[in-house]
Amino acid sequence: MNWYLYIARCSDETLYTGITTDIVRRINEHNTNNMKGSKSLRGKRPVVLVYSEEYPSRSVASKRESFIKSLSRDEKLKLLKA
User: Fold this and answer.
1) In 1-82, at which residue ranges do the beta strands (DSSP E only) sit?
2) Cα(60)–Cα(52) distance, rounded to whole angstroms?
3) Mean pLDDT taken over the chain
4) In sequence order, which residues have a C-beta less than 8 Å from that of residue 61 and are 6 or more positions away?
5) How many Å apart are CA 24 and CA 14, to the nearest integer?
6) Pairwise CA distance, residues 6 & 38, whole Å
7) What tens digit of pLDDT does each residue of 17-52 get?
């Protein structure tokens, strides 16, 4: 099973980074009243997928997620344009 790192842009222009095995399902969870969506995004809907990367394991995806979360907003925006 492949894992995906994703970045979503929220309605307030903030960027949210996460990992999942199913990006379409996860973005849908963030955009609905589904209790599986991130609580921090409930007031920032809708969220739109703007970036993703595929990894062979959860471990590798989690390490990349941690690295991206440590970046500044400007660095994340540069990544989105690359």
Assistant:
1) 3-9, 15-20, 48-55
2) 14
3) 94
4) 3, 4, 5, 19, 53, 55
5) 19
6) 14
7) 999 999 999 999 999 877 777 778 888 899 999 999
